[in-house]
Amino acid sequence: MKKSNLILISALIAIVFFSLAFQLTVHSYIKEDKANKVPEVFRSEERKTDSFGSIKTGERLRILLFQDSIQSVTVKANNSIIDSVQTSVDDGELLIKMSKDIRKKDSIVVEISCPEISALRLSGKSYVESNGILSGEQLRLELDGSSSVNLELNYKTVLYNNTSDGDIEIQGDIKNIQITNQPKE
């Protein structure tokens, strides 16, 4: 075998050896980093709010609605993002906002109970589900973006405006429903 072929084979073996050593070193650092990672802790936080009968959000979250004589708002989320979920009441409307962007894998659940809901104004990728039957005189339901709802209702009148691409599932006893479907431009 020629001397030049021997040098070439030795160089290839050295490159493969150093490449393998580099990969093993990087892999051990990644494995060590994941081992030191703090596990995500979910917590539940009850929020104090003024009285409200309407709900508005444009955030990616799941809202569970309960009809109850006692009003409450409970946020359930990862410990690292729960403080960025802002809840406030403006003119009788509960506003749910995020102070920072959340990742797709982050899960936020807001449990809301109040005596009567008169309006739900949803946009973004919010999802609202009723836990039990919601009842009252009139409900204004406005959906936009990719918002979805799954509601069981007992209302005299429902004013329904939908420009959402999301799934809509409404059942129950509704005496009068006015539907406005505005196509997206």
From TrEMBL:
It comes from the Bacteria. InterPro entries: DUF2807. Residues 52-180 form the Putative auto-transporter adhesin head GIN domain. This is Putative auto-transporter adhesin head GIN domain-containing protein. The lineage of its organism: Bacteria, Pseudomonadati, Bacteroidota, Flavobacteriia, Flavobacteriales.
